[in-house]
Design a protein that fits this description.
This protein is α+β, with helices and mostly antiparallel strands. The chain folds into 2 domains: about 10-165 and about 275-325, no CATH class; about 165-265, no CATH class. The protein has helices at about 10-15, 70-75, 165-185, 190-210, 220-235, 245-255, 260-270, 270-275, and strands at about 35-40, 50-60, 85, 100-110, 125, 135-150, 150-165, 280-285, 290-295, 300, 305-310, 320-325. The strands form 2 sheets. The protein has a 7-stranded mixed β-sheet, with no helix packed on it. Strands 5-6-7-12-9 form a 5-stranded antiparallel β-sheet. The protein is elongated, with a radius of gyration of 23 Å. The two termini are about 25 Å apart.
């Protein structure tokens, strides 16, 4: 966004939320709704404050509720990570976290101290000691004061990213497809099944990569399904040349069009942090130490800029927000 034109279109890197197209998941009916509200103030001397409130608004689905115990472990919302429960009573660990609000406040004496804010927004997809525990959402914060010909400027950048989430989604869908092919065509060898699994996993990753790219467009889902179907037909004809392959199209379609419960359940049970993160909003307001020079923020109000994101936006590609401002003397 250009400060001289507040109505200018946001950069492409912010324009698209996660692709959820023909070969990927649709948006789920997730349990509950959470939001981070971050307030950041940077002063001309480099000092400042970052305050984050995390709120669990409600629970729309009791099938996979977010408990206080899970909230602390998956979202790292606990005293060990600097969070304070602002609700009047301490809840039981197994109780629903709906209605809870937590607060984390960090002060910085100078610009060099801002590096300690890295990782203050962190979501672990699976619980410690479980498979997929390495799948995480994290933030990387960078605040710099730079001397330029025009004077001192302050640069604020924050990058939000998921590690390993795309791979987990692709693996789930590829395994589902392979299981269906094996059940329908038991004569396929393990090598042939592995070949088919690699094909659809690669296609899914390609789709995720392209659809989530700032410059890319979502691939044609029908074209991708047709390519997978044709390749599967070639493998089947190695065994029976006149075999009717009408069933393959249905298997490929079923693998691509998740019925909104299999992947939903898989994420809730195996990657509960990612499951609840999909309904987690991230609202950030940054007050800079002088007039705004450049930013990709959603709104500008004097020296304050704001962004409205969803944690899930970073599942395909990292999302970067930035603002550059003059430093008032």
């Amino acid at each position: 966004m250009n400060p001289k034109n507040p109505n200018a279109t946001k950069p492409a890197s912010r324009r698209r939320s996660l692709l959820l197209g023909a070969l990927v998941i649709g948006l789920f009916s997730f349990a509950g709704c959470q939001h981070y509200d971050a307030q950041v103030a940077i002063h001309p001397d480099g000092s400042g404050r970052r305050t984050i409130e995390f709120t669990v608004d409600s629970s729309r689905d009791n099938t996979f509720p977010l408990t206080h115990e899970a909230l602390g472990e998956l979202f790292h919302i606990d005293s060990a990570h600097g969070w304070e429960l602002t609700s009047p009573e301490k809840p039981a660990p197994e109780a629903s976290a709906a209605g809870a609000t937590f607060r984390r406040e960090t002060t910085f004496d100078d610009f060099a101290a801002w590096s300690q804010a890295d990782g203050d927004l962190r979501i672990q997809a699976a619980r410690q000691g479980r498979p997929h525990a390495a799948v995480v959402f994290d933030n990387d914060l960078d605040v710099r004061f730079i001397e330029s010909e025009e004077g001192r400027i302050c640069q604020y950048r924050e990058i939000f990213s998921w590690t390993g989430l795309r791979q987990e989604i692709a693996a789930f869908m590829a395994d589902r497809f392979t299981e269906q092919m094996e059940a329908s065509y038991p004569f396929l060898s393990s090598n042939e099944l592995h070949e088919l699994r690699g094909l659809i996993a690669g296609m899914i990753m390609l789709h995720l990569e392209a659809a989530g790219s700032p410059e890319g467009e979502e691939p044609d889902g029908d074209l991708i399904q047709a390519a997978i179907t044709a390749h599967a037909e070639d493998i089947l004809r190695r065994h029976v040349s006149d075999l009717s392959t009408a069933e393959i199209s249905e298997i490929v379609r079923a693998a691509a069009d998740d019925p909104m419960d299999l992947l939903d359940t898989y994420l809730a049970e195996e990657l509960p942090g990612a499951y609840h993160a999909a309904s987690t909003a991230l609202n950030i307001a940054v007050t800079m130490p002088g007039p705004i020079i450049d930013t990709n923020a959603d709104r500008i109000d004097g020296q304050q800029v704001t962004w409205e994101l969803n944690v899930w936006d970073a599942s395909a590609h990292p999302v970067e927000i930035f603002v550059i401002a003059e430093v008032a003397e």
